[in-house]
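4.2 Preliminary Data

To establish feasibility before requesting continued support, the project team ran the inverse folding procedure on a target of 343 residues. The structure was first converted into the token representation described in Section 3, and no sequence information of any kind was made available to the design step. The complete token record follows.
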């Protein structure tokens, strides 16, 4: 089975010129970096460093604790923690990679510094409607993850032979997490061909799974039980579920970054449920984070755009609302009711 070629002849030449002439490269992932963003950032960082480049991987804020095992994660600059060091890297760089985001707005506080950076950009992403913000854009909304596209590009330019165990582990983590351990958006033979090629590089996929999904705290498990028992609202006629997490509750359950990961998927286990909405008060900004997940033909991205200042994929999207959370809950209830009328 062939690995897909994403780059045209012209784009291959453009890639070679941009990367070949660059000496100092910044590799960016989006705010609230997940496994796909971190996997792509770190895999590409390893590749570029092996090619002799000076590379600074960077994200707007810190990744969750369950991703801190990833090879090279200690190199990543979190802009919110070290804005001065991040700005120095942007001032010095002559190429910027934008991975797993389709708009500079996804960088939040890092948006303006990147906008003001004169270096050319290369975007690799799998979200809908990418903004024209890069000299070279490789976008495929049908891909399961940005790590899938990145693997294909590296394979196309002849980098698979020298791909290290560390690179392969990072790419696999991105594929695994963005498909819910291959439970959705992963029903293609070519994806599993890529996985086989990664396993051939000596990765331990079972250990990677444990690193991500079996590394939470006791408090996180108790929080999950509390949310499902005490906070879950279920709308049987609308086949939808909703729950909200406040700052006070996060403090009570000793919340750390990443503890809410995957909670939004849990109500989808209820028979015939099509939509799940999670609301969470942000502890750093006066807003409520919104996550949406769906099954089948329910368009999460449309709901996110219309009601939650967001967007995303058809079955997985996100957004935000201003505080207080009570008003955010009311808007979410309204969104569920109005989408029911239209369906």
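Position-by-position output of the design step:
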């Amino acid at each position: 089975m062939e690995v897909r070629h994403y780059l045209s002849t012209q784009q291959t030449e453009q890639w070679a010129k941009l990367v070949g002439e660059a000496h100092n490269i910044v590799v960016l992932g989006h705010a609230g970096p997940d496994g796909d963003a971190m996997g792509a950032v770190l895999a590409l960082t390893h590749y570029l460093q092996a090619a002799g480049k000076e590379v600074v991987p960077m994200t707007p804020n810190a990744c969750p604790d369950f991703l801190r095992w990833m090879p090279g994660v200690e190199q990543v600059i979190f802009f919110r923690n070290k804005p001065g060091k991040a700005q120095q890297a942007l001032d010095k760089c002559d190429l910027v990679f934008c991975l797993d985001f389709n708009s500079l707005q996804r960088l939040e506080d890092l948006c303006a510094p990147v906008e003001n950076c004169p270096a050319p950009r290369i975007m690799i992403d799998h979200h809908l409607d990418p903004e024209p913000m890069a000299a070279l854009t490789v976008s495929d909304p049908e891909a399961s993850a940005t790590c899938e596209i990145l693997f294909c590009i590296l394979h196309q330019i002849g980098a698979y032979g020298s791909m290290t165990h560390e690179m392969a582990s990072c790419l696999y983590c991105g594929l695994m997490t963005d498909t819910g351990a291959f439970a959705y958006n992963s029903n293609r033979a070519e994806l599993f061909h890529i996985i086989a090629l990664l396993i051939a590089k000596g990765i331990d996929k079972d250990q990677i799974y444990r690193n991500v999904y079996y590394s939470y705290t006791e408090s996180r498990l108790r929080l999950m039980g509390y949310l499902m028992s005490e906070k879950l609202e279920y709308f049987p006629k609308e086949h939808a579920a909703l729950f909200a997490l406040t700052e006070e509750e996060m403090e009570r359950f000793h919340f750390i970054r990443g503890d809410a990961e995957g909670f939004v998927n849990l109500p989808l286990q209820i028979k015939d449920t099509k939509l799940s909405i999670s609301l969470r008060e942000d502890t750093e900004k006066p807003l409520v984070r919104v996550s949406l997940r769906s099954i089948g033909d329910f368009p999460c991205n449309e709901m996110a755009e219309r009601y939650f200042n967001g967007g995303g994929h058809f079955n997985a999207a996100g957004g935000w609302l201003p505080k207080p959370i009570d008003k955010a809950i009311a808007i979410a209830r309204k969104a569920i009711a109005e989408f029911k009328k239209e369906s």
